[in-house]
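Input record (one chain):
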Amino acid sequence: RDLPVIRGFYGDAESKAFDVYRLAGQLGSLPITVLKKLHTGVLEMYVTWVVAGMAAIIALLFLLR
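The corresponding structure, as predicted from the sequence alone:
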């Protein structure tokens, strides 16, 4: 721990900078935050998302032909 070359790595490791589960949790929370903001409870908004999604699927099907 006292070697100058690896002293920084020990500090990062103790602050869990290399923890894969924590990093994945941070990356996974971004889409969840966005989705939470999109859920407004307004029916018209949900209908708009359904219609837009169907239009995107139909457009994609026509483009792939």
